[in-house]
Amino acid sequence: GRLETSDCESLGSASGSEGDAEYAEGISLPDMDLELLHDPEDELLCANLMDVVQATLGRAPLGAKRCWRLLMPAQLQAQVRTELLRLACSEPCGLRGALLDLCVEHGKACHDVGHIAADPAVVPTFQLTLVLRLDSRLWPKIQGLFASGPAFAPLKLSTGFRVMKKKLYSSEQLLIEEC
User: Where do the segments described as Disordered lie (predicted)?
Assistant: First the structure.
């Protein structure tokens, strides 16, 4: 069963009923609809987390002495939200236990633009590194702007991204997903 809020701090577990065990018998996790595994609390937390991500991208430091306003397309927002919830569903505290490192890749450089604790009141159980990319169709047009131009110039992100998951309580291998 799903952990109760108070159990997350102690990393204790809640037990399911026997009926749940009988129903789940013979069904593997990959066969189950992942939507059934999502916690409504995680859904709300993820929406709030995406707001913080967008605010952070709204003032992203990508060059020396310069910040950019990075625009996240709706399709990218939906994909990232789905991926964050999917990666959190197997964690003891769900999305509440996440630390999110936000990076933006342009050219061969990768810029760290923020670090976000999904729930600062919970001891983190896993770390996600989200690597977003600038829209490559814009790169030749904006390459010259890195030396001059207005502060907080808007740039659009590509719908492709990479996310890396590292469990902080286990020596399990690093999981890297390209989307």
Answer: 1-21
CATH code for the domain in which residue 103 is found: 3.90.470.40
**Residue 26 domain-assigned (yes or no):** no
Q: What is the pLDDT of residue 154?
A: 77
pTM of the model: 0.69
Q: Which stretches of the chain drop beneath a pLDDT of 50?
A: 1-7, 9-36, 139-140, 143, 147
In a domain, 11, yes or no: no
Alpha-carbon gap, residue 176 to 179, rounded angstroms? 10
Matching residue, tokens 């994909």: 79
Rounded CA-CA distance 167/128 in Å is 9
Structure tokens at 100: 């999110």
Does an H or E element contain 127, and which? strand 126-134
